[in-house]
Amino acid sequence: MDLSTFDIDAPRWDQSTFMGRLKHFFNITDCRTALLPDSRLDEAKALVESCRAGSVPPGTTEEQLYYAKKLYDSAFHPDTGDRMNLIGRMSFQVPGGMAITGFMLQFYRTVPAVVFWQWVNQSFNALVNYTNRNAASPITPKQIGVAYATATSTALATAVGLNLYTKRAPPLVARWVPFVAVAAANCVNIPMMRQQEILNGIAVTDENGNKLGHSRKAAIKGITQVVISRVTMAAPGMIILPIIMQRLERYRFMQKITFLHGPLQVMMVGVFLIFMVPAACSLFPQQCSMAVSKLEPELRDSIISQYGDRVSYVYFNKGL
């Protein structure tokens, strides 16, 4: 089969549908790819770049090209092409998220435990948010520090405040405090970590990739969708799992193995995240679109003056 004209960047599945995006994100969030050495990832990148240049090595199969693109998408930033740090990759969301979330749900009763695990979670989230930002909008070390400190403070204030407030509430309500804290922190962490996009706008293009300018409204839309996705990603495990654990803990056999409750919750969170990470990432297209009529007046007028009604939508990478 002649693969010299193979378009490796063409979506394998229809990205305009939820099911198509779900298949795509199940593919690139596969946590097994996080175990591969950098040398294997670099080989995949080299094969992808060779294919883009029209020089596929002899003997290469179509399936090998698809697998190389899977590794490339899972480990390299879509804007810069640079290899992302391991912990910040979406393929690390299941092992990283299951450990942290499981222990947040287990150790929610005392203030020191709440403070420690919320701090660990926000440190993890900050790294994920920075890694998956729209790289066309650089952020300074000072802004990263302010974003991290603000999000962590929000999570701690929410968690500790609610923890104290729910002392007299039903036990199940107290078990939901970690989720409220995580959701509140996500609403702060992501916009703060990507504040340059909100202040200066992100690059928008036409359907052919031609740059048309920078839009703050596009940035706000993209970041809002990312916040919704992240909260959705955490919600089932952090809302449903406490109900399951509360019922299980009534049984005598569970009362005899309290030392296993933490590991058990970690594993159950993992089951939720295996499905929720790709599902939450699939809620909105990564290549987001926005009608020209909804852009800032100056950018809208600039596009209309140059292209008339030939460009009705702009496109941009919303990040993950």
From TrEMBL:
Task: Tell me the superkingdom of the source.
Answer: Eukaryota
Q: Name one GO molecular function term.
A: monoatomic ion transmembrane transporter activity
Give a GO biological-process term: serine import into mitochondrion
Q: Where are the transmembrane segments?
A: 227-245, 266-285
Asked if the record carries the keyword Mitochondrion, the reply is: yes
Q: Can you say where in the cell this protein is located?
A: Mitochondrion membrane
| Topology versus the membrane | Multi-pass membrane protein
Question: In the UniProt record, does the keyword Lipoprotein occur?
Answer: no
- Mention any one GO cellular component term assigned to this protein in its UniProt record: mitochondrial inner membrane
Q: Kindly give the InterPro entries that the UniProt entry links to this protein.
A: Mtc
Keyword field? Amino-acid transport, Membrane, Mitochondrion, Transmembrane, Transmembrane helix, Transport
> What family is this protein classified in?
Belongs to the sideroflexin family.
Q: State what protein this is by name.
A: Sidoreflexin
User: What species was this sequence derived from?
Assistant: Chanos chanos (Milkfish)
Gene that produces this protein: sfxn2
